[in-house]
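Key result, reporting period 2: structure in, sequence out.
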């Protein structure tokens, strides 16, 4: 059922050709491209340590790590044209951030962006630092924080999963808008005018996409609970009820 829903999502969201939302190759001024690389690299180093620790301590989680990366790759490769000629897409990073933490997702998300830049011409190598900061760093950290805060306040697992995926998606686009506004301030109104403009471009399509991503992530979470409870228990995300021993 989950595979069918993802396939339907791909057909609907990918029906029309469009340019990818990732900041394209050569679009940012050189100084800003270097700045975002400098900001991103420390997170990648910490993320690599996190991934190494996870795989060494619990090698049985490698398949789940691959699933989180594949989920992010498929969703972030989808493109939905916006009314302004730009495009929006889901991010898919919320699930991995909840499962393995935001640092691990920094590396997985950056690898996703690298493959998309090389294989699908989405984004670019010079702008990889900026794209990684918005999608692979800011989004996962937002998802992780939203998940744990919602879980603590409501105690509702599925609500926490939905909000973490949906709001992290929106937060990723807000950070991208900030990056573009910093690089290209408006002649009149400066940074704030550009921020409103760039954020408004993506808002029309990104809000429904974020809601859709949240719902899809909940469905995948339900599937994981049904078919990989041992791994989720190992990650301390669920606690299975002990089976009662029937007296003979």
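The corresponding designed sequence is given below.
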């Amino acid at each position: 059922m989950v595979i069918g829903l993802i396939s339907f999502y791909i057909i609907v969201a990918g029906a029309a050709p469009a340019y990818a939302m990732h900041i394209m190759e050569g679009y940012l001024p050189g100084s800003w491209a270097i700045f975002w690389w400098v900001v991103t690299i420390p997170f990648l180093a910490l993320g690599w340590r996190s991934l190494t620790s996870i795989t060494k301590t619990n090698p049985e989680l490698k398949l789940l790590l691959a699933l989180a990366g594949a989920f992010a790759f498929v969703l972030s490769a989808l493109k939905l044209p916006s009314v302004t000629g730009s495009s929006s897409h889901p991010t898919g990073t919320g699930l991995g951030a909840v499962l393995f933490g935001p640092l691990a997702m920094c590396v997985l998300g950056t690898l996703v962006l690298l493959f998309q830049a090389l294989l699908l011409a989405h984004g670019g190598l010079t702008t990889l630092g900026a794209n990684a900061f918005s999608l692979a760093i800011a989004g996962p950290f937002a998802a992780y924080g939203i998940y744990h805060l919602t879980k603590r306040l409501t105690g509702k697992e599925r609500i926490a999963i939905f909000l973490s995926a949906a709001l992290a998606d929106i937060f990723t686009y807000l950070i991208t808008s900030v990056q573009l506004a910093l690089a290209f301030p408006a002649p009149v109104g400066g940074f704030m005018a550009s921020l409103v403009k760039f954020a408004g471009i993506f808002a029309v399509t990104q809000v429904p996409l974020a809601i859709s991503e949240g719902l899809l992530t909940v469905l995948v979470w339900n599937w994981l609970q049904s078919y990989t409870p041992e791994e989720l228990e190992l990650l301390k995300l669920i606690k299975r009820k002990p089976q009662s021993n029937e007296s003979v």
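Confidence is low (pLDDT under 50) at residues 1-20. The radius of gyration is 19 Å. This case is discussed further under Risks and Mitigation.
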